[in-house]
Design goal:
Helices cover 4% and strands 44% of the residues. The chain contains three helices and 54 strands. A hairpin with a 2-residue loop joins strand 13 and strand 14. It comes from Haloterrigena gelatinilytica.
Length: 698
C-alpha cells in the first residue's frame, strides 16, 4: 500500500505542462517550472520516494527477448495514486476508480473536468518503478469520453505519450535534446470532425525541430464520444552520437485499429539521460468549459524496449539481409533518399560499392527492394505514390534510372538531379577489341534520302567496306551513329552487338553481309521531323499521336525539350533540329517567329497541322489579357498535360511541365494555355488573371 504524503503536492508545483494549442499559439507554464532542472527533479523525486517507502504499482510484468510488457491491473488498487504519480490537479476533483462504465473490468479510472482547464496528470514513471529510461515504448489503453461536446476548434488532450519533464517539454521553452520533450495526444473539433458523435485525433509535440509553441498536427481519424475507443501508441527515440541527434525518431498512433498518425524523422534527444520518462492519462481542454464531463480510462498496458508481436509492424530487420536499422548509419559513408512522386515508379540504382536499405529519417520499409552485387551493387525497386525510400551506401552512385522520374533525390543532405546520372553504367571499355563486324547502309538504286541511326555495345568507326564512301556529315557519339545516304553507301566497322537501329527511307541495311530488318532492333521511330532555322528566332511546339524524341548528337538534344512522350518544344535561329517519331504528326505551332519544317524528306505547311486535330480533349487557359500585373499559377491533373497555343496563347519555355503538373507565370496582356485529359486535382493562382476550362474540344 502506498502512503500519501506532501510529496505529491511538491510535484504539482514543479511539473511543467504542455501549453495552449489555440490559434494564438501561446503556451502556458505551470507555476515554478523553471525552479529546478529535470535531472535534479528526478533525483529529488527518487529520494522522496525512498524516504516514504513507495513501491512500484505494477500488477505484473512479462519479459520477452528485447521487450518487457507491463500490465497495469486497475482491479488490484483502491486509488489511482497507488499506480500513477498524480500531480497538477487543477480541477480540484481527484481521479477515482469507478465501477461503470468499464471495458469488462471491475473498475476504470475517471478524471472529471470542473470549470478549470485541466484535470490532472497521471504519470507512470519508469525510473520510479524500477526500470531504466527506455528508448522505445508501446502503450495501449481504452478511452471513454463521457458527455463531452466541443465547439468549433476546441481541443482536448487525453494522454502523455510520452512525457520527459523539463523546460523543453512545455510552456514554449526551447527543446535542446537535454532538457525534456513530450507528446500529448487528443481529439479536436477540426478537419470536418463527425461532431457531436466524434472528434478527430491530433498529436501535439515538443521536439528539437519545432518552432514556437508545440507542434500541433491534426488527422482525420475520429475518436468517438460516449463509447469505448482503443488508443495505441509507439514512440522510439532518435539515435545520436557526440551530442548530435539524427532525424530518425518515430511516433505512431492507432485509433480503433487504424493508423492515425506517423512521423519517422523526429529529433527528441541527444543524451541517454533524456530518454523516455513516463506515459499516462491527462485531461486538458482548450475552448469550451467541460465542467461535469469526464475522461474514463481502462486496460492500460505498456511494452518497453519493443512492440508486442500482434502490433509489431516494424521492418523485418532479421529477415531481410539487405535491410538495416537507422542506428547502422555510422557504418556507412553516405546516405541516399528516394522521394517518389504521385505515380507508382520503377527505379534502379547502381553503386560502385555496397548499399543497404534502411527506414531512417522519413523513409519507410519498401518490401519490393532487391539488391544484387556483381560489378556494381544494383538496387531494383518499385515505389508507391508519395513514398520515401532510404539507403546507406559506400562508394559512389554511378547510374540512376526511374520511370517516371522521382520527385526528389538526396545524397547525404544535398539534393541531386537524376539527369546528371546515366541510366546505366558506362559500357565496358572495348577499345582494344577488334572491329570484327560491318554494318552497311545501302542507298544504291533508291530514290530520295534515307536517315538512319544505330547503336552498338562496343566501339565503332567509319569504313569503306562494300564500296562505301566516308561522309563527314555522319556522326559518331560513343557507340551511337547517325547519318544519311542518298544514292550511295555508308559503312561502319564495330565490336560488340548491334543493339538499336532506326531507318527512315528506302535504303537497305546489312550486318556482315546479311540483310536485316530494322524493326528487330530497339524502338521503332520510323519518321523524321526537321525544323530548319532561317536566321530569326522561332519558338515551336510539335505534337504527334505516337512517340517523339530528340536525336542524340543533333542540335535538337540541346535546343529542344520533350514535354511529354508526344510533344517537344524548342527555340531555333540557325541550323537544324531533327526529331524521330512514330504515329502521325498532328500539331505544329509557333509561339514566336516561323521557319521551315520538313516531314521526312518533304517540306510541309505548318498551317496544315494547326492543332485542329488535338490529342488531348480539354483545355485550360490562364488569361492575363485584362490583368494589370503578371500572375503566377500551378496545377496538377490526373492525366496528361501539354502546353498549347490555344486561343492565341503563347508557349513560354520558362513555364514548367513536370509529369502531370504545370507551373508558370503569365504576363499582363498575355495568355498561357494547356491541353489535358482527366481531371484537375489541384490548382493555385496568385494574381488577377482569369481562368477558363474548356471540356471536350472538337
Amino acid at each position: 500500500m502506498i502512503v500519501k504524503s506532501d510529496y505529491s503536492v511538491y510535484m504539482a508545483r514543479n511539473t511543467p505542462e504542455l501549453g495552449d494549442d489555440s490559434s494564438d499559439g501561446a503556451d502556458e507554464r505551470a507555476a515554478g517550472d523553471g525552479a529546478i532542472d529535470r535531472r535534479s527533479y528526478l533525483k529529488l523525486a527518487g529520494a522522496a520516494a525512498a524516504a516514504i517507502g513507495i513501491s512500484a504499482g505494477v500488477a505484473g510484468a512479462q519479459s520477452t527477448e528485447g521487450m518487457e510488457r507491463i500490465e497495469l491491473d486497475y482491479d488490484r488498487y483502491g486509488d489511482p495514486s497507488q499506480l500513477y504519480t498524480v500531480n497538477d490537479n487543477r480541477s480540484g476533483i481527484p481521479p477515482e476508480f469507478v465501477s461503470s462504465p468499464t471495458n469488462g473490468s471491475n473498475q476504470a479510472i475517471r478524471t472529471e473536468f470542473s470549470s478549470a482547464q485541466k484535470t490532472a496528470n497521471l504519470e507512470y514513471r519508469f525510473e520510479e518503478n524500477g526500470y531504466e529510461m527506455p528508448r522505445e515504448v508501446y502503450t495501449s489503453f481504452k478511452l471513454y469520453p463521457d458527455g463531452i461536446r466541443l465547439s468549433a476548434n476546441d481541443t482536448v488532450r487525453i494522454f502523455w505519450l510520452p512525457l520527459t519533464n523539463g523546460p523543453g517539454s512545455s510552456g514554449g521553452g526551447a527543446t535542446d535534446g537535454t532538457n525534456g520533450w513530450s507528446n500529448a495526444i487528443g481529439f479536436a473539433n477540426r478537419n470536418d470532425s463527425p461532431a457531436p458523435d466524434g472528434y478527430n485525433f491530433f498529436s501535439y509535440s515538443y521536439h528539437m525541430d519545432r518552432g514556437g509553441s508545440g507542434d500541433f498536427q491534426m488527422t482525420s481519424v475520429p475518436i468517438w464520444m460516449d463509447q469505448w475507443n482503443e488508443i495505441e501508441g509507439y514512440v522510439r527515440c532518435n539515435t545520436f552520437s557526440g551530442g548530435s541527434a539524427n532525424r530518425d525518431g518515430v511516433m505512431r498512433y492507432w485509433v480503433n485499429g487504424e493508423l492515425a498518425f506517423e512521423r519517422t524523422n523526429l529529433r527528441m534527444t541527444t543524451t541517454e539521460s533524456n530518454l523516455i520518462e513516463g506515459v499516462g492519462p491527462l485531461g486538458y481542454v482548450v475552448g469550451s468549459s467541460l465542467s461535469g464531463d469526464a475522461l474514463i480510462y481502462d486496460d492500460h498496458e505498456i511494452a518497453i524496449g519493443g512492440m508486442p508481436a500482434d502490433r509489431d509492424d516494424s521492418p523485418p530487420y532479421d529477415e531481410d539481409p539487405t535491410l538495416v536499422e537507422p542506428s547502422a548509419r555510422d557504418q556507412y559513408e553516405e546516405r541516399f533518399t528516394y522521394r517518389n512522386g504521385d505515380e507508382e515508379a520503377a527505379y534502379r540504382i547502381y553503386v560502385d560499392g555496397d548499399i543497404v536499405q534502411s527506414d531512417w529519417s522519413q523513409a519507410t520499409y519498401n518490401e519490393s527492394v532487391e539488391i544484387t552485387s556483381d560489378e556494381y551493387a544494383v538496387v531494383e525497386a518499385t515505389a508507391e505514390p508519395g513514398t520515401i525510400d532510404g539507403y546507406f551506401f559506400d562508394g559512389d552512385i554511378v547510374a540512376i534510372s526511374a520511370d517516371p522520374d522521382p520527385s526528389q533525390l538526396w545524397v547525404s543532405g544535398e539534393q541531386i538531379d537524376p539527369a546528371d546520372y546515366p541510366d546505366a553504367p558506362p559500357a565496358e571499355d572495348r577499345s582494344d577489341e577488334p572491329l570484327e563486324h560491318v554494318v552497311l547502309v545501302d542507298g544504291l538504286g533508291t530514290t530520295g534520302t534515307t536517315r538512319y541511326e544505330f547503336a552498338v555495345s562496343g566501339s565503332v568507326e567509319k569504313s569503306t567496306d562494300g564500296g562505301a564512301s566516308i561522309d563527314d556529315g555522319d556522326a559518331i557519339d560513343g557507340g551511337r551513329v547517325t547519318g544519311l545516304v542518298g544514292g550511295w553507301r555508308d559503312a561502319f566497322r564495330f565490336s560488340g552487338e548491334l543493339e538499336e537501329l532506326t531507318v527512315d527511307g528506302a535504303a537497305r541495311v546489312s550486318v556482315d553481309g546479311e540483310e536485316i530488318d530494322p524493326a528487330d532492333y530497339g524502338d521503332d521511330l520510323p519518321h523524321v521531323l526537321t525544323v530548319v532555322g532561317n536566321g530569326s528566332e522561332a519558338s515551336y511546339e510539335l505534337t504527334v499521336d505516337g512517340t517523339i524524341d530528340t536525336v542524340l548528337g543533333d542540335a535538337s538534344a540541346v535546343g529542344a525539350e520533350r514535354q511529354t512522350s508526344e510533344t517537344v518544344t524548342g527555340t531555333i535561329e540557325r541550323g537544324v533540329h531533327r526529331f524521330r517519331f512514330s504515329g502521325e504528326l498532328v500539331d505544329v505551332a509557333f509561339a514566336t517567329g516561323e521557319t521551315h519544317v520538313y516531314l521526312d524528306a518533304e517540306r510541309i505547311d505548318p498551317a496544315d497541322y494547326s492543332g485542329e486535330t488535338r490529342v488531348l480533349p480539354h483545355a485550360i487557359v490562364i488569361d492575363g489579357s485584362e490583368a494589370d500585373d503578371a500572375t503566377d499559377y500551378s496545377f496538377t491533373v490526373d492525366g496528361d498535360v501539354i502546353q498549347s497555343n490555344y486561343r492565341d496563347a503563347t508557349v513560354d519555355r520558362a513555364d514548367s511541365l513536370e509529369g502531370t503538373s504545370a507551373a508558370g507565370s503569365v504576363g499582363a496582356g498575355e495568355r498561357d494555355a494547356y491541353f489535358f485529359d482527366g481531371d484537375i486535382t489541384d490548382f493555385q493562382l496568385v494574381g488577377d488573371a482569369t481562368v477558363d476550362v474548356h471540356h471536350e474540344i472538337q
